[in-house]
C-alpha cells in the first residue's frame, strides 16, 4: 500500500469518526419515533431509552477509563474499547489522535482549510517548543487529583470537552437561532411562509427539537470552545500539542510502539516541507530527533517528502527519544494534583454544609463518590427531555464546576423518567429503572412553600397548580380549607396547600409550573435527597 | 479561472438587509383570528345524548365506540368527505393508559378510524400537553395510535400558538393552539377524572389543553375560564371516555389504586349535557360542579335530564 493511500485512509477514518461523533451527539435525546409499543410500557418491562450507543466515544477514551478506575474504583461499562485504544497506541503510537479523535479532526480541519500561517512562519510555528510540556502537567494534575477523590478530567478531556461544547453551546445556540426564524415566519400572515416554517420545523426537529433549549453556563462553554478553536491560528492543532491530557497519556503509552519514522539523511535536501506539514511539531526532518510521543501519526511528512527521505516503517521499539515530560511539569502536576482535591473541599460541600441549590439528577451517587466519577460531559443534560439538568457554575462549589445541577424554573424531573442515569458514561448517575425511582422512592430534594408569594396563602385568590401537577400517588401536596385575610381587609375562603415531606420526592414540577415565575412560591431544595445521609430532614 | 464577478462581503450584507426588511414588513400585519367554521352544536341541530355501556366481560372498546356513533346515524353526520378533522384527546400527562389520566388509546383509535371511513381527508391529534409532548405521545399510546391509523400527531410548539380573540367573560385575547381551530370538524375526546379545584375534569375543561400562554393562571377563575373556552372552541361532538376513571389523586393520578373501571362512554353534541351525564358517574350533581352550572346558565347547553333524545347502547 502506498503512503498516499494511507493518508486517504486517515482522512476517511477521521471523517467517519467525526461524523459518527456528531451523529451520536444529535441522537442523545429521546427517540424521534414516538411509536413505541405502549403495552410494554404498561407492564414496566420497557423503559424509555435511547436507541444509539451514545456513550461509545467515552468508552473508547482511556482517560475516562483510567480516571474512573483510580478515582471511583469502578470499571466503567464498555471499557474494552479504551483498552483496545491503549493496545493500538502501544503498537502504533498516537494513531487515536491522527485517525480517530473527533476533536483532533476538527482542529485538523480548522488548521488546514484556511491556515493563518504560511511559508516560513508556518515552519517556525511547527517547531518543538517547551509549551508541549503543559499537557503532561495537566495529565499528571488530573491523574493525581483523581487519585485523591476529585476527578475533573472531563473539563479537558477532548471527548468530554467536544461533547459538552456541541451539546450545550453549539447545537442549542444554532437551535435558538433557527427557532426564532420559524416563530417569526409563523407570525407573519403569509400562508406560504407559515407552511414553510411548519414544514422546516418538522424537518429539523430530529436535530433541534421543537423548543427553545437553555443551558445556564452555555455562553461560557461556547466561548471557551471558540477560543480553543482560535488557538489553531497561533499553531496548527494547538490543543493537541499543548493542552490535551489524553494526547499526553497516549504519548506516554506510545513509548515502545513499533511504527517509527525512518529518516535517510543523505536523501534530504532540507526543503523543510515535512516541517511545514507536521501538525505535532515532532521533528520529522532528518537531522532533528523524532519525537515519538509528540507525533500524531498523521503521516503528512511521509506523504509530502519529494525525496522519500522520511518514511514510516515497522521497526524496533527502542532507540527513539523517550517522552520528555519535563521535570517541572511532573513536579508541578504532582503538587497541584495533591493540593487541588483538598482545596476544593474548603467550601465544606462534602463535610459540613450542603448547598440548598445543589440538586443532583435522580440516581446520582453520594456527593463524594459522585465527584470521583462525573466527567461533566453534558450527556445527561443533553438527554434530559425537560431541559432541567444544567451545568453548574457555583452551586457545587469549585469541585462541582459544570457538573449536572437541576434548575427547576427551567424544567422539572419527569416522575417516570430515568434517562440521565441510563446515558451516564461512568455511572456517576446510577442506571435506575422507573420502577425503582418511584417505589423506593429516589428523592432529589424536597419542596417548601413561600407563603408570602403563594396566591392562596397571601389571600390573593384560589390556585391549585402545584397540587394538580404533583405526580406522586397519593399527592405530596394537600390542602385544608380556611379563611385568610385578603387585600383591603377582605376575608377569602381558599384551599391552602401544604407539602407532605414523607411523600415529596423533590421532582420540582410544582416549582416549574407555579404561576409565580422566576422565584416561585413553591421551591425545591436539596434537603431530603436520598443519596445523602447527612441531608435528611425527617427522623 | 473564476472570471465571474464575486459578491463582496459588503454587497452580500446589503442584499441580506434588503431581504430582511422585506420580510419584517410582511410580518407586521397582525390578525386576530376568529374561528371561521360554523358550528353544528351551536346551531339548531337536534340534541342527543348516548350512553355506551360495556356489559360483557372483555368487551371490545372499539366495537362500543362504533356502536355509540351508529346510534346517532354514524360518523358521516359530523364528518363530510374531504374534511380536515381535529381530535382533541386528553393526553397531557405522561402516564400509561391503565392509570386513567389520559384518553383511552383504543377509543382514540376507533374514532380516528370512523373519521377516516367517513372520508376525512386528514385527521389530526391535537393536544398541548403538560408533560413533554414526546414522552406523552409515547407513554399514553397516542403515538402508536397515530402510527396504526396514519393520523397526524401534531407536536405542540410556540410557532403553532397564535393570539386569538376569545371574547369571553373573563378571557379576551389568549394564545390558542392553532391546529385545533384550523379544522372542518372538531371532536372533543376527553377522559373523565377528578380534579382538585374544578371538582372534575370532563369535556369542557379539556380545552385548557388547547391553549398556550400562562394557562396556569386560568385556575384563579377556573369555572368561568372553562366556560369561556368552551364558548370559543365549540366542538361538533363530544365523546367522554369513562371506560376507566380516576376517582382520586386527579388529575395526574399515578397509581392503579386511583382507578375505577366503569366501562362507559358518553356521546353528545351538547357540552353541558355530556359533562353533566359524566358527573353523575362520580355520584356528583351537575348543579354542584361550577363550570357545568355556569355553562348551563350562560347558554352553552342544557343538563342531561333536559335532553329528550337520550339513548343507550351496550356491547
Please tell me how large the radius of gyration of chain B is.
22 Å
For the biggest sheet of chain B, the summary is:
10 strands, mixed
In DSSP terms, counting alpha (H) and pi (I) runs of 4 or more, how many helices of chain A?
Answer: 23
Q: Tell me the count of domains of chain B.
A: 1
The fraction of residues in strands of chain A falls at 5-15%
Structural class of chain B: alpha/beta
Regarding CATH, which class of chain B? Answer: Alpha Beta
Q: What is the string of helix and strand elements of chain B?
A: HEHEHEHHEEEHEEEHEEHHE
Give the largest chain-chain interface (CB within 8 Å). Answer: A-B, 54 and 53 residues
Task: Return the structural class of chain A.
Answer: mainly alpha
* Number of separate strands of chain B: 12
Low-confidence regions of chain A: none
CATH fold annotation of chain B: Rossmann fold
**How far apart are the termini of chain B?**
80 Å
* Number of structural domains of chain A: 2
User: Any guess at the CATH architecture of chain B?
Assistant: 3-Layer(aba) Sandwich
Amino acid at each position: 500500500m502506498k503512503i498516499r493511500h494511507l493518508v486517504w485512509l486517515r482522512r476517511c477514518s477521521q471523517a467517519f469518526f467525526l461524523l459518527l461523533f456528531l451523529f451520536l451527539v444529535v441522537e442523545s435525546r429521546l427517540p424521534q419515533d414516538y411509536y413505541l409499543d405502549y403495552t410494554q410500557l404498561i407492564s414496566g418491562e420497557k423503559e424509555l431509552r435511547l436507541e444509539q450507543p451514545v456513550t461509545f466515544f467515552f468508552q473508547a477514551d482511556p482517560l475516562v477509563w483510567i480516571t474512573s478506575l483510580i478515582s471511583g474504583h469502578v470499571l466503567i461499562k464498555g471499557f474494552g474499547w479504551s483498552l483496545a485504544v491503549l493496545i493500538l497506541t502501544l503498537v502504533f503510537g498516537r494513531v487515536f489522535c491522527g485517525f480517530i479523535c473527533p476533536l483532533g479532526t476538527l482542529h485538523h480541519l480548522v488548521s488546514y482549510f484556511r491556515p493563518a500561517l504560511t511559508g516560513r512562519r508556518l515552519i517556525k510555528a511547527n517547531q518543538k517548543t517547551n509549551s508541549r510540556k503543559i499537557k503532561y502537567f495537566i495529565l499528571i494534575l488530573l491523574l493525581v487529583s483523581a487519585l485523591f477523590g476529585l476527578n475533573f478530567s472531563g473539563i479537558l478531556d477532548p471527548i468530554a470537552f467536544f461533547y459538552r461544547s456541541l451539546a450545550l453551546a453549539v447545537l442549542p445556540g444554532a437551535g435558538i437561532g433557527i427557532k426564532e426564524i420559524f416563530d417569526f415566519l409563523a407570525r407573519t400572515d403569509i400562508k406560504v411562509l407559515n407552511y414553510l416554517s411548519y414544514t422546516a420545523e418538522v424537518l429539523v426537529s430530529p436535530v433541534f427539537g421543537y423548543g427553545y433549549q437553555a443551558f445556564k453556563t452555555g455562553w461560557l462553554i461556547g466561548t471557551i470552545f471558540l477560543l480553543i478553536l482560535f488557538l489553531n491560528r497561533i499553531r496548527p492543532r494547538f490543543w493537541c500539542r499543548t493542552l490535551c491530557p489524553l494526547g499526553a497519556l497516549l504519548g506516554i503509552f506510545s513509548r515502545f510502539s513499533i511504527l517509527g519514522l525512518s529518516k535517510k539523511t543523505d536523501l534530504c535536501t532540507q526543503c523543510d516541507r515535512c516541517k511545514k506539514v507536521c501538525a505535532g511539531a515532532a521533528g520529522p526532518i532528518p537531522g532533528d530527533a523524532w519525537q515519538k510521543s509528540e507525533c500524531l501519526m498523521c503521516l503528512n511528512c511521509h506523504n509530502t517528502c519529494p525525496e522519500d527521505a522520511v518514511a514510516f516503517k515497522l521497526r524496533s521499539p527502542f532507540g527513539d527519544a523517550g517522552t520528555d515530560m519535563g521535570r517541572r511539569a511532573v513536579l508541578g502536576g504532582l503538587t497541584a494534583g495533591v493540593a487541588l482535591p483538598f482545596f476544593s473541599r474548603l467550601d465544606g460541600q462534602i463535610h459540613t454544609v450542603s448547598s440548598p441549590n445543589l440538586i443532583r439528577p435522580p440516581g446520582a451517587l453520594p456527593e463524594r463518590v459522585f465527584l470521583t466519577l462525573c466527567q461533566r460531559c453534558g450527556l445527561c443534560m443533553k438527554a434530559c427531555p425537560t431541559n432541567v439538568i444544567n451545568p453548574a457554575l457555583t452551586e457545587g462549589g469549585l469541585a462541582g464546576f459544570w457538573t449536572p445541577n437541576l434548575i427547576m424554573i427551567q424544567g422539572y424531573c419527569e416522575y417516570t423518567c430515568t434517562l440521565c442515569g441510563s446515558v451516564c458514561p461512568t455511572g456517576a448517575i446510577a442506571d435506575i429503572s422507573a420502577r425503582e425511582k418511584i417505589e423506593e422512592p429516589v428523592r432529589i430534594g424536597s419542596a417548601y412553600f413561600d407563603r408570602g408569594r403563594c396566591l392562596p396563602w397571601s389571600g390573593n385568590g384560589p390556585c391549585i397548580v402545584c397540587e394538580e401537577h404533583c405526580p406522586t400517588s397519593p399527592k405530596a401536596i394537600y390542602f385544608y380549607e380556611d379563611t385568610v385575610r385578603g387585600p383591603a381587609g377582605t376575608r377569602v375562603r381558599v384551599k391552602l396547600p401544604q407539602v407532605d415531606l414523607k411523600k415529596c420526592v423533590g421532582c420540582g414540577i410544582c416549582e416549574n409550573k407555579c404561576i409565580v415565575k422566576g422565584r416561585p412560591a413553591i421551591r425545591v431544595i436539596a434537603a431530603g435527597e436520598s443519596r445523602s445521609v447527612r441531608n435528611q430532614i425527617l427522623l | 479561472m473564476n472570471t465571474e464577478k464575486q459578491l463582496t462581503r459588503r454587497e452580500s450584507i446589503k442584499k441580506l438587509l434588503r431581504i430582511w426588511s422585506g420580510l419584517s414588513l410582511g410580518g407586521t400585519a397582525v390578525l386576530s383570528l376568529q374561528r371561521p367554521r360554523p358550528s353544528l352544536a351551536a346551531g339548531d341541530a337536534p340534541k342527543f345524548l348516548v350512553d355506551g355501556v360495556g356489559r360483557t366481560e372483555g368487551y371490545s372498546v372499539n366495537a362500543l365506540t362504533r356502536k355509540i356513533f351508529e346510534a346517532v346515524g354514524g360518523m358521516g353526520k359530523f364528518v363530510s368527505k374531504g374534511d380536515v378533522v381535529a381530535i382533541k384527546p386528553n393526553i397531557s400527562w405522561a402516564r400509561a393508559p391503565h392509570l386513567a389520566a389520559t384518553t383511552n388509546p383504543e377509543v382514540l383509535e376507533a374514532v380516528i378510524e370512523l373519521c377516516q371511513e367517513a372520508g376525512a381527508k386528514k385527521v389530526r391529534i391535537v393536544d398541548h400537553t403538560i408533560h413533554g409532548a414526546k414522552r406523552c405521545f409515547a407513554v399514553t399510546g397516542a403515538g402508536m395510535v397515530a402510527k396504526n391509523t396514519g393520523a397526524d400527531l401534531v407536536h405542540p410548539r410556540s410557532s403553532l400558538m397564535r393570539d386569538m380573540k376569545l371574547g369571553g367573560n373573563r378571557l379576551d385575547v389568549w394564545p390558542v393552539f392553532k391546529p385545533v381551530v384550523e379544522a372542518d370538524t372538531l371532536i372533543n375526546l376527553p377522559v373523565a377524572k377528578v380534579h382538585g379545584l374544578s371538582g372534575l375534569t370532563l369535556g369542557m375543561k379539556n380545552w385548557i389543553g388547547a391553549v398556550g400562554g400562562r394557562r396556569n393562571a386560568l385556575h384563579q377563575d377556573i369555572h368561568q375560564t372553562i366556560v369561556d373556552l368552551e364558548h370559543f372552541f365549540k366542538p361538533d361532538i363530544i365523546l367522554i371516555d369513562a371506560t376507566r376513571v380516576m376517582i382520586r389523586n386527579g388529575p395526574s393520578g399515578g397509581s392503579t389504586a386511583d382507578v375505577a373501571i366503569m366501562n362507559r362512554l358518553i356521546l353528545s353534541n351538547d357540552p353541558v349535557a355530556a359533562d353533566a351525564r359524566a358527573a353523575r358517574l362520580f355520584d356528583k350533581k351537575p348543579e354542584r360542579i361550577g363550570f357545568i352550572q355556569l355553562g348551563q346558565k350562560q347558554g352553552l347547553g342544557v343538563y342531561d335530564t333536559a335532553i329528550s333524545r337520550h339513548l343507550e347502547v351496550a356491547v
